[in-house]
Write a structure and sequence with these properties.
Layout (H helix, E strand, L loop, with lengths): L2 H6 L20 H9 L17 E6 L5 H19 L7 H4 L2 H4 L2 E2 L9 E5 L8 H4 L3 E3 L2 H11 L22 E6 L6 H16 L7 E8 L2 H13 L7 H5 L8 E7 L12 H4 E4 H11 L7 H18 L8 H6 L9 E7 L8 H12 L4 H11 L1 H20 L1 E11 L8 H10 L3 E4 L12 E3 L6 E3 L18 E8 L8
Parallel strand pairs: 5-6, 5-9, 6-7, 9-10
Antiparallel strand pairs: 1-3, 1-4, 2-3, 7-8, 10-14, 11-14, 12-13, 13-14
Helix pairs in contact: 15-16, 16-17, 17-18
The protein binds S-adenosylmethionine.
């Protein structure tokens, strides 16, 4: 075997090299060292175009008929294959594999999450299903993080029919917080999960769910608002909406433009931060019949309505339950949450898109943003600032978690400093915090999904293996996830 051929072999967590690429690009030495230190053998990298997943993952929007969406997707995939093969004389049936023509259900995640894999070459931007909001583009590793947060059983092979832990009949509201929410794909996954639960419930007593997203970045928040509305989170279904049907008020989505490290604290002003509420969007759509750009007076009414909601629900001093006296030196002024996601700002070094951009940045002086990102990994002072922010975010998320609730801390970094060490820090500083093991039995035997260096956490390494076989495993991007619980009551074992 030649050296190049040997390099093309994939071992755990390593990037696949293609020896037919002419141009070899190299990372700056520090960055190269970083990846080597984190199990990514990047001694030689090919052109940026080769550094991508064989798969593109999508999730189906439950507000549309899923059989219909899958049928439409199938047609789009066939067109895609025709397009790819149009310069070849052989027939499509002879050249296209099943995996190219079928949306493939991800076998290792419960089907309630509706994740499908499409060929990596399929363009979402030109897909009608995507443009009409029938499918979301979302990596499967991120999906696994949400499954870990909202369910106890994470793996398809062991999942039972009822995976929810939340549909207790005597509970009136489930509260979910996404502390770093933009652009909002995980927020939508959570809202959709509860939407499906409420749509399928047979109980007369409906469970109300509030999903609250927080982010500090205003341009990302604008994008998030657009995404939330694109996917009809503020409606039962696009068909029902255009036909004047009922909207879904059981799952409310709220967005706050705010600093997650102080959100809900004493000096915190909900009235200022609330920028979207799905109930207001539903009311406005009811008045106007369809979504249009708001004019000046409509914008003023919109602000007023949001303020009214914020006033009613916002600055509510919490009751002095015995749970808070121990954990909370910074009492919260909003009701606490059953589920908290802290998908923290990170150095993004596990993500395909960012790795690609990083490599380009090292060779192209015009891409200064990504050169700056590269420095995040190699400049110790910048890394320390980032870790300090992550600690504040995880601490804030834990402060806002109800005793008995669950929280996921995740990043798309492979760095221990930003992952296991942040979680260990929280466990050491909060006496009522404990780790809940995340387990995906069928894939954790694969070379790309392992337990983290902290027992019970999980690491997904970016999967660049061309596993487009008849029974592919379907793994995605680099990701780290940990699940934490909060003890109930003041007297607990340390
Ligand atoms: C990894 S991204 C989140 C991705 C998002 N969870 C999703 O699935 O679409 C991290 C986000 O954290 C936000 N962020 C950074 N510092 C923050 C802070 N102090 N408070 C709230 N959000 C913050 C960034 O603006 C960014 O949108």
């Amino acid at each position: 075997m030649s050296d190049d051929a040997a390099a093309a072999n994939v071992v755990r967590g390593r990037i696949r090299f293609q020896d037919d690429q002419e141009m070899t690009m190299r990372l700056c030495p520090e960055l190269k060292q970083f990846y080597q230190d984190h199990s990514l053998d990047v001694s030689k990298l090919t052109t940026s175009s080769s550094l991508s997943s064989p798969w593109r993952f999508v999730r189906l929007n439950p507000r549309f008929d899923t059989t219909e969406t899958l049928e439409l997707l199938r047609k789009e995939l066939v067109d895609h294959v025709i397009d790819k093969n149009k310069n070849h004389t052989t027939t499509i049936a002879a050249t296209a594999t099943r995996t190219e023509q079928e949306p493939l259900a991800v076998p290792w995640l419960d089907s309630c999450w509706a994740f499908y894999a499409l060929p990596g070459s399929f363009s979402l931007a030109s897909s009608t299903c995507y443009r009409s909001g029938r499918i979301y583009g979302m990596d499967i590793s991120s999906g696994a993080g949400i499954a870990a947060l909202l369910t106890n059983v994470h793996d398809q092979k062991t999942a039972t029919t009822n995976t929810t832990t939340t549909s207790s009949d005597d509970k009136t509201e489930i509260r979910v917080l996404d502390l770093c929410t933009c652009p909002g794909l995980k927020l939508l996954t959570m809202a959709d999960y509860f939407y499906q639960m409420s749509a399928s419930t047979t109980s007369n007593k409906s469970t109300k769910v509030k999903v609250v997203g927080v982010d500090i970045n205003s341009s990302r928040m604008d994008k998030c608002k657009a995404i939330v509305q694109k996917y009809w989170v503020d409606s039962a279904s696009p068909h029902q909406s255009s036909a004047g049907g009922t909207a879904n008020n059981d799952v409310v989505v709220q967005l706050h433009l705010a600093d997650g490290t102080t959100f809900g604290g004493p000096a915190y002003d909900t009235e200022e931060s609330l920028v979207f509420d799905s109930r207001v969007a539903i009311e406005e759509r009811g008045e106007r019949g369809e979504r249009k750009r708001l004019n000046k007076s409509a914008r003023a009414r919109h602000r007023k309505r949001l303020r009214q909601i914020a006033n009613v629900e916002g600055m509510r001093p919490e009751t002095n339950g015995d749970d808070d006296t121990v954990t909370n030196t910074n009492p919260s002024f909003i009701e606490k949450f059953d589920y908290v996601l802290v998908d923290a700002e990170c150095s993004t070094d596990g993500s395909f898109k960012h790795i690609r951009e990083r490599i380009k940045a090292e060779h192209d002086s015009s891409t200064t943003v990504h050169q700056e990102e590269n420095r995040l990994l190699t400049d110790q002072a910048k890394l320390a600032d980032l870790v300090a922010l992550q600690k504040k975010l995880i601490e804030s998320g834990f402060r806002l978690l109800k005793p008995g609730g669950s929280m996921v801390y995740s990043t798309c970094s492979l760095s221990e400093e930003q992952n296991e060490k942040v979680v260990s820090w929280l466990l050491e500083t909060k006496k009522d915090a404990f780790l809940i093991p995340i387990h995906f039995p069928s894939i954790m035997q694969s070379e790309f999904v392992t337990e983290g260096t902290l027992k019970g956490t999980v690491r997904f390494y970016p999967n660049l293996v061309d596993d487009t076989t008849s029974e592919p495993t379907l793994l995605g991007d680099g990701f780290f996830a940990s699940k934490l619980g909060k003890c109930i009551g003041a007297s607990y074992e340390q």
